[in-house]
Amino acid sequence: MSTQESIAKDGVDAETVDAVKTVGEKYKYGFATDIEMEYAPKGVNEDIVRLISSKNEEPEWMLEWRLDAFRRWEKMTEPKWAMVNYPEIDFQDIYYYARPKSMIEKPKSLDDVDPKLLETYKKLGIPLSEQAILAGVEGAGDTPVEGRKVAVDAVFDSVSVGTTFKKELAAAGVIFCSISEAIKDHPELVKKYLGTVVPPTDNYYATLNSAVFSDGSFVYIPEGVKCPMELSTYFRINAENTGQFERTLIIAEKGAQVSYLEGCTAPMRDENQLHAAVVELIIQEDADIKYSTVQNWYPGDENGVGGIYNFVTKRADCRGDRAKVMWTQVETGSAVTWKYPSCILRGDDSQGEFYSIAITNNMQQADTGTKMIHLGKRTKSRIVSKGISAGKAQNTYRGLVSIHPKAVNSRNYTQCDSLLIGDKCGAHTVPYMECRNNSSRIEHEATTSKVDDEQLFYCRQRGMGEEEAVALIVNGFAKEVLQSLPMEFAMEAQKLVAISLEGSVG
Amino acid sequence: MFEIKNLKASLADEDKQILKGMNLKIGAGEVHAIMGPNGSGKSTMSYVASGKGGYVVDEGEVLLDGANLLDMEPDERAAAGLFLAFQYPVEIPGVGNMTFLRTAVNAQRKMRGEDELNAAQFLKIVREKAKALKIDADMLKRPVNVGFSGGEKKRNEILQMAMLEPKVCILDETDSGLDVDAMKLVAEGVNALRDGKRSFLVITHYQRLLDHIVPDVVHIMADGKIIKSGGPELALEVENNGYEGLMNEVV
């Protein structure tokens, strides 16, 4: 005769404890590449700024621009208004520049890149070869499998390792290269646009980035050109105690179109590492940029040790009439996230969209959202935010919708949904709304729900394991956002949702 | 085949025993019905057997082909061949019915060490089975049970049952909330799954379902135990005289 103390509860708890113990190990990008690096001395000062500029062989104007930013940064203080807590960062205890020694002499083509670096990207699932990516996608179950080309710029610590499909893109008139190359090869474009969306004075981290950014991606789509393939940048932090400060600048001229993806990972380390990026998008008349992010920086372990501080400024400027921008982000990584991809809707009839899934598990904290600044007439914005909290994590949606007096007949729709798993985590919604004319309309909906036991049991009675069931329910909750991602990213993101919630139930 | 032996179980939150020594044995291919007044423990039995949280087993076993289900996780019980058709099927927003079904089917196959079905294989099978239950393509695409009518929800339960091909099916008041036509459709679906090996345990308040799913044995449950068992005529007796007479008779 078998007697069970408790049917579900004890069994599940024990299992959960085990799962939580191993969750840190399940971050599958946590390996480090053993490679000889060249570092700038620790800390930041004018000499370091000069050093970074000289490593990148920059013209004088660029150095001046950096120094100006640095001098401003020295007088600024860190923002404290976000709902996140972390120990004070010692900005003098960070390396601001680290590059693989094999990259000192810039490889002429991908064939010349250090095999160790290529191997790293291969291991991360990003082959740096110019082959079509095969993506089998299951929608209704009968979507055909097709080959697609995605061009990649691979950034390793402080430098770009290489960019694929450059020639094919150039034939279409598209410039896709690292920002350090763009500063040398296309100074007129960089000079015209850099810092015009996120000025060097914008905020503490953006100003720091302006002073010390080392690399990042540059995209220029000329008038009337639809970019012939998807572009992507893959950011990898590898070196210890090193900050990554990348800068991305994308310009879509009149009627141009581009879809851009970015991915990020880092090794598992017990020290926190800083990632402070700036992304600027410029969208002219009738142009359209889709910008998707899957952010999977190392989140730290279950006790909150280690992980990336992800303090990022991203902004799109719809300068022309009928310009369109869409931000989609899947934020599963980082110990602390501070990030508000925003849209300035300057052109009449311009449109901004923001779709976000932010998942926080264990001790992770996220304060993320968007800003929609309506300046032009009949501008439209749409915000769909899905926050998922598990463990002891805190997840805040913070958003601003501002409709200016001249932005007549404008519309905003905001939907913020929070899902809680367990009872030790938190979800917060902080929407700011201002409408300064009386012909515009702002709609805001918000819900908070829990993954309930009935749903879990229903799934499990049908044969699903506990974590599989949670992943299914969460993917359902976030479906609207997942659908807005490019296909192969959507698949990856779904899996990521499952991985980042491992050990979250009990 | 399926056997409940001296099962005693209580609510976890309050010290209240619901099942007080229940015994039941169903052979392969048999259909048994359980009837009983409200609060007699019928639904509790189905939850305890399938492993829902919130109950404590005080004593007893639930055996499926000799293995004690009570030692297993709910998903292991499902893979072992136990299926519960819910009285109130649960809604899962955003998850397509088809995705849900395929995830469930493949999870069970995986646990049993069988090959998972690919999209094409799965689609072919699900379309066939859905057609028999008059479930259209639209219903397969909609999120699980969200916005389904009472009849659609119950038909969906039977579709899941058909796809998962369990050894034992417990139907918890599957007829509740159904009109006569919907009930017939559900009963036909169940009858189509009777193959001489699969066993059924049908929990119901009403004789009328048993006109369509004809049981081999009818059990009357009261106060956490089976108090009387008999043939289909026992259900008619309940229909005519209510439970009271029966319960007095036993006491």
Q: Could you say which structural class the secondary elements and strand pairing of chain A correspond to?
A: alpha/beta
Give the strand line-up of the largest sheet of chain A: 6-5-9-11-14-16-19-22-24-26
Q: Biggest chain pair contact, residues each?
A: A-B, 37 and 52 residues
Low-confidence parts of chain B: none
CATH architecture of chain B: 3-Layer(aba) Sandwich
Description:
The complex is a heterodimer of chains A (506) and B (251). Chain A is an alpha/beta fold. Chain A has a domain of 316 residues. In chain A, helix 2 packs antiparallel against helix 3 and helix 9 crosses helix 10. Chain A starts with 8 loop residues before the first helix and ends in a 6-residue tail after the last helix. Chain B is an alpha/beta fold. In chain B, a hairpin with a 2-residue loop joins strand 11 and strand 12. In chain B, helix 6 packs parallel to helix 7. Chain B starts with a strand and ends with a helix. Classes of the chains: A alpha/beta (506), B alpha/beta (251). Chains A and B meet through helix 1, helix 9 and helix 10 of A and strand 4, helix 2, strand 7, helix 3 and helix 4 of B.
Features:
heterodimer; A: 506 residues; alpha/beta; ten-stranded mixed beta sheet; six-stranded parallel barrel; 12 helices; 26 strands; B: 251 residues; Rossmann fold; four-stranded antiparallel beta sheet; 12 strands
How is this fold's topology laid out?
The complex is a heterodimer of chains A (506) and B (251).
Chain A: H1 9-23, E1 37-39, H2 46-55, H3 60-74, E2 98-100, H4 115-123, E3 133-135, E4 146-148, E5 150-156, E6 159-163, H5 166-171, E7 175-178, H6 179-185, H7 187-193, H8 204-212, E8 217-221, E9 230-236, E10 247-252, E11 257-265, E12 272-275, E13 278-283, E14 288-295, E15 307-318, E16 324-331, E17 336-339, E18 342-345, E19 351-360, E20 365-368, E21 371-374, E22 380-389, E23 394-403, E24 411-420, E25 426-435, E26 441-450, H9 453-461, H10 466-477, H11 479-482, H12 487-500
Parallel strand pairs in A: 5-9, 8-10, 9-11, 10-13, 11-14, 12-15, 13-15, 14-16, 15-17, 15-18, 16-19, 17-20, 18-21, 19-22, 20-23, 21-23, 22-24, 23-25, 24-26
Antiparallel strand pairs in A: 1-2, 3-4, 5-6, 7-8
Helix pairs in contact in A: 2-3, 3-8, 6-7, 9-10, 10-12
Chain B: E1 2-11, E2 16-26, E3 31-35, H1 42-50, E4 55-64, E5 67-68, H2 74-80, E6 82-85, E7 92-96, H3 97-111, H4 119-132, H5 137-141, E8 143-144, H6 150-164, E9 168-172, H7 180-192, E10 199-203, H8 207-212, E11 217-222, E12 225-230, H9 233-250
Parallel strand pairs in B: 3-10, 3-11, 6-9, 9-10
Antiparallel strand pairs in B: 1-2, 1-4, 4-5, 7-8, 11-12
Helix pairs in contact in B: 2-3, 6-7
